[in-house]
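Worked Example 4.2. Read the sequence first, then its structure tokens.
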Amino acid sequence: MNMVKRFVALVVLVGSNLLVAPAAFADEVPNPKPNAPDGVKDMADKIIGLLKWGGLAFAIAGLLIIGIKMMSGRDNGRGGRDGIDALGYWAGGMVLVGGAASIVSFFMA
């Protein structure tokens, strides 16, 4: 427990310094826009596109599996709750997969 208290104290100390320090040097620190090197942007776009496509394909498969669990849920005595419980995780995953670019852009702006 003592180690946890030390860790929390360190996080608070570092976090407070990170909040105060940028305000003191805000005029001196440049903030350039991201600029990908030649040839890297196309490859990064391709990889991100493939990951997003894969995430959406898994989401469709997951939704089908959840539906099957709900339809066959009466047999295990839970009345389809296994599928309904999974639906929240599925929705959370879809928010992250579908909105990843918007979420990152919000924090990077």
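Now turn to a second chain, presented in exactly the same format:
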Amino acid sequence: MTAIRIAAVSGSLRASSINTALLRTIASGAPEGVTVELVSLGALPLFNPIWRRICPKPSRSCAQRLLPRTG
């Protein structure tokens, strides 16, 4: 059976966010074979068109967690 990986992203940065709490609850109750990883947007910089060529480290890190991995 193929393992299922789900990236859970909350749009809120508040520590007491109901949306983030819901995602944590979902992650803790995931069935066997399903991994739910909470991805924080808090470290991402604001949009800057110059960064299309030079990707800041927090953006690269987030993209690596969200993009499918092969091999």
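Notes for the reader: The chain has one domain: 4-66. Residues 4-66 form one domain.
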